Amino acid sequence: MASQVGLKPTATSFGEACVEHDGPGVATNSYTPDPTGELHTRRADLSSDLLLGPLAFYLFSFPHSAPLTIPEIDAPVGDNESRFSATTSQPSKEARVPLQLPTEMWLEVFGFAARASQRTLADTTAVSSFLHGAAEEALYKFPELLNIWGARKFASIIADSPHRARIVRGLHLCCPSKHTDDFIAAVHEVLPKLERLHSLDLFGIGDECVDEETAFRLFQGLELRSLRRIRGRPLCLSPRVIAALRMFPQLEEIRMYSCTVFPEDNDDDDILVTNRQEQPQFEILRDLPSLCALSCPARIMADIQVAGRLTALCITDATRVVMNDVARLFGMQLISLRVERRLRRYTGLAYPTNWFDWSKLPRLKFLDVRDSGRRCGDLEAQVIRTQTLPPSLQTLVWGPTWVLDCALLDSRSEEWRRETIKEFAETVLRRSSGVKTVVYRWARGKSYLCVLMGHKGQQQYRELVADPAWVDEDAWANTR
After folding, report:
1. pLDDT for 166
2. Which helix (H) or strand (E) holds 327?
């Protein structure tokens, strides 16, 4: 069956404009149902996440003389009321009965309103006070703190209204490098009050990664017992950063950029040395025993000697040698895997099924292969090998470079590329023992989901435009 994947949140921000209001902007989320029912959702569920992202952005990006309030159900609402209320066979302006729809249906309606304009969504959500609870939940579930002002304002709101702290499930953190110290101080003021915080997204801290010093100052002294995920920019880890992360006993997921090792004869903590030749002074999967999802570069694999509880892994700059190390260490426990292959210049079509013996990972259900490199020619004959796939594999996602590269030596047409990738998808679906879904990345930001439909023996190949959730950067981590 297809594996569950989560959509990236459609972020709306807090801290973009100094507007007096009693609530922060929020990064909203969306959700792709899990056909298997086995896996984790990403960040939030449908019932509260599609509602007020654009509204929050509107509220905090434009001045208002007073906070926007939601009128009572019996208040006059004007000519547009007929769109949102049910009436008797002979309508009367004196008596209106609200249309009683489930909250989930209102959320769907507001999702369409958000596509029109922020003002449209703001007007729509002001129809009735019975939506106030869902609106507040959407506003505070995943706030996005863009700057120091936003972080301080959010901390002030949480201090004045402690019940809102119980709504917060995640924070998106973004801060210019020159203001890092003040931003971290403001974040530290609010984090201990968020007793149900599950996720931190460091999407706007650092450039390529969160450096060791910033990571240490961000996590030092915190005790976040409910925190499960740290996403966004990968972290430069060190023994002291690991020591800080140990205060998060439920931490299940982390992105790792490097291992920073302090020389034994160095008394100055400000001098950091990254040395791949020395044995690291910590073992991440031993020191963080709850960790079950890890993203790291291939160069880190040599430092990992303990398998721990890991079931989801993302490897960047992967080679066959590295994949053999992965199979040796995690082969009997991996369920989800993303591999970013470093192909450089290559010939042929680089089918992922031919590249590695994936059957060494017998429990694997979800495999995402994303390529980098430049195809420079064809091979005369290439057979698509499917016997290398593990029997438990349900979903295969592939992003080949040659569907995007228009400078091939043989100048193949777009039609040829499309037919070739479709042939690969259909072959995998028909010949593999367990694969139910193949997704391939295509040009112009599109991806296609491929399945076989019909009764056994009479199945027909079908494909449709894939939901972006299937190729989400974090899809591998949402499959456990």
Report:
1. 92
2. helix 320-330
Residue from 234, 173, 228, 242 nearest 199 by CA: 228
Query: For the chain (length 480 residues), average pLDDT per consecutive 10?
Result: 43 44 37 36 32 35 32 38 39 54 66 51 57 68 86 91 90 84 92 94 88 94 94 93 94 90 47 43 84 94 88 94 94 96 85 95 96 78 90 95 64 84 96 94 89 89 93 89
Quick one: pLDDT at residue 41? 32
470 in Cβ contact with 427 (< 8 Å)? no
How far is 124 from 93, CA to CA, in rounded Å?
20
What token pair was written down for 193? 């009050």
**Tokens for 233?**
């920019």
Q: How far is CA 448 from CA 6, 418, 431, 452, in A?
A: 17, 11, 19, 13
Q: What is the C-alpha to C-alpha distance for residues 478 and 480, in angstroms, rounded to an integer?
A: 6
Contact 320, 352 (CB under 8 A): no
Residue with tokens 């101080």: 185
For residue 230, what are the β-bridge partners? 200
How high is the pLDDT of residue 112?
Answer: 59
Residues 6+ away with beta carbon under 8 Å from 223: 192, 247, 248
User: Could you tell me which residues come within 8 angstroms of residue 56 by beta carbon, excluding any fewer than 6 positions away?
Assistant: 12, 14, 23, 24, 25, 26, 138, 139
Tell me, what's the pLDDT at 433? 86
Cα separation, 245 vs 253, whole angstroms: 11
> So what's the pLDDT on residue 116?
52
CA–CA distance, 457 with 78 (Å, rounded to integer): 60
Strands 366-377 and 336-347, bridge-based pairing: parallel
Strands (E), 4-102: 10-11, 27-28, 85-86, 97-98
Q: How far apart are CA 172 and CA 1, in angstroms?
A: 32
Output the six-digit token pair for 165: 């702290």
Question: What are the C-alpha distances in Å from 268 to residues 21, 219, 277?
Answer: 46, 20, 21
Which residues, listed in sequence order, are joined to residue 339 by a DSSP beta bridge? 315, 369
Q: How many CB atoms lie within 10 A of CB 392?
A: 16
- With tokens 């949102």, the residue in question is 84
Confidence (pLDDT) at 76: 38
Q: Which residues contact 445 (CB under 8 A, 6 or more apart)?
A: none
The per-residue pLDDT for 376 is: 79
Q: Is 11 helix (H, G, I), strand (E, B) or coil?
A: strand
Burial class (CB in 10 A: 0-12, 13-18, 19+), 288: buried
* Strand ranges for 298-416 from DSSP E: 312-318, 336-347, 366-377, 395-399
| Alpha-carbon gap, residue 472 to 20, rounded angstroms | 35
**Whole-angstrom Cα distance, residue 209 to residue 274?**
15
Given a contact cutoff of 8 angstroms between Cβ atoms, the answer to whether 204 and 175 are in contact is yes
Joined together, the tokens standing for residue 365 give: 């259900």
pLDDT for residue 131 = 66
